[in-house]
Amino acid sequence: MMRVTHCDRRASVFSMEEVGPMEGWCQTSYRVCLNARICDCGLFQYLHYPCRHALAACATASIEWGNLVDPVYKMASVFKVYEMEFLPIPDEKMWPTGYGARLKPNPIMQQKAMGRPVSTQLQNEMDVVERTEKRCGLCRREGRTRQG
């Protein structure tokens, strides 16, 4: 739950408290500056996308939050990437010869490609299974099988 405690609409600066049930009640306060696109949580600056505190500030001041989204996330920017023509990759035979060091994989670091994964569980005396002789599927006597 978010509660705005201070609102300066001219400077677009908001202070708010976040109250949430996480192992009891914890209360944390944040300061959001919409003009500078800054929030104390750091997500607004890091992602260039409004965090939940910025969205709460926008809701309080009736500000359209879409204007705070960085242009890189807008569809016009995505379409701009695909405006240029992509040339197909030529056949491998037409590639120029590579020069420089050839890298070889370390055989010790390679993993097995097939088979069951190796268990990393540490076994103790509880994991020991006592082996019993096989029983016949029909008469359930030990040492016999259905065939003979």
UniProtKB/TrEMBL annotation:
SWIM-type domain ranges (all copies):
30-62
Pfam families, alphabetized:
SWIM
Tell me which UniProt keywords the record has, alphabetically. Answer: Metal-binding, Zinc, Zinc-finger
UniProt entry tagged with the keyword Ion transport: no
* Keyword Endoplasmic reticulum in annotation: no
Q: Which SMART domains match?
A: ZnF_PMZ
InterPro entries xref list: Znf_PMZ, Znf_SWIM
Task: Offer an example of a GO molecular function term for this protein.
Answer: zinc ion binding
According to UniProt, the name of this protein is SWIM-type domain-containing protein
Organism, per UniProt? Answer: Arachis hypogaea
